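REVIEWER CHECKLIST
Item 1: Sequence provided? yes
Item 2: Single chain? yes
Item 3: Sequence as submitted:
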Amino acid sequence: MKEPLFWIFLLALFLRLLVVCLGVGFDKDLTFFDARDYDRYAMNLLSGKGFTNGTTWASRTPLYPLFLAAIYFFFGHSYLAVRLTQSLLGAFSTLLFYAIFRLYFSKRVSLWATFLCACHPILISYAGNILSETLGLFLLALFLLVFLKGESHARSWGGGFLFGVLLLCRSPLIFFLPFVMVHLVREGKRPFHSLVGFCMALIVVLSPWTFRNYRLLHAFVPLATHGGTTFWDANNPNALLDPAKAGLASHWVPPGKVVKRVEGREILLSEVEGDRVLFKQGFLFWKKLLRENPPALLYLFLRKGLAAFSLHGGKNLPALFGFSLVYLVFLPWGLVLSLRLGGRPTLLYGVILQYLLCSLIFFGRAKYRMVIEPYLVVFVTLAFLKCVDGVLSLCYNTKIRTSFK
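Item 4: Structure as written out by the authors:
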């Protein structure tokens, strides 16, 4: 391992372990609903009750609860063991980031971007949360490295397998699938064979989980029954009535708790039916706004876009805009500069676009952005170093050429 990268890895590991040992900067007491839910799934698995949280059977994808259950099996019901394991995963992820960055960017840009990822407060703090983001971060980086650097068979079959595993950890990345398939067709030597191999490997990975859900729920559920809850959470009248929550979570209905009023009585819907009802209500809300108040719908999307690039998910508008400004200025500039690279990082563009699309449909916040944060950081780093070189050129009255590759 090259010396600068080795020290960056050690720094990343040290910072994550320090935060975990000090018990600061993360959800130590599992106050997040998601954290408690993942924990319940894992404990029920270990106790022989099956993959359930006691209410629903498929509101979560299975990989992270299985990850927790494996750690609990060997170390007991220890959150510390999970956090230490995730700290190691987070540190090793920095090595994968560097390998991905070097496929497109200069050594200078790659090292600085990797250093910033090692010190990034969001990436550090989430290593302590009992949430799927840190595992998803590692799996996405592993997929990208194999898919971009591997040979034909590794790219198609290996990429399809890893993408299936990734979806079983982080279902929102389903929005990334079209970009992956387009890249496979455009860049592959034998596009049809590569695409078939990728799809077959993906289906093989997802099939056991899909068949299990069909047997239990009598419905086609390839990933989870959580989408309707999240969609309605971000697209309902409360999202506009309370300005502090516009574009953010505003009306949470837990999966499996959706009721329907029939003849004056409330009937509890199944988790699949409830998920579909909430999706329908969210789309009706969009339709109503589009017909009666289009500016309000645009405002909702604007707030979602700002929240997607905020530090904490931002309920305070000035603070929300302040941190977003860093991305709003440097990210587009970095993307434009990247067009001058010898090989354009088109798949990294896809990573960013799928996140933005997902944020506008649902909602954006640091929690959901964390998995793709490194691929924002590298473009911001490219623009920032270009700015630094420009300032130095003025100070020393000499032209400093920024190396892109």
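Item 5: Key structural point noted by reviewer: Residues 100 and 145 are 6 Å apart (CA to CA).
Item 6: Recommendation: ____
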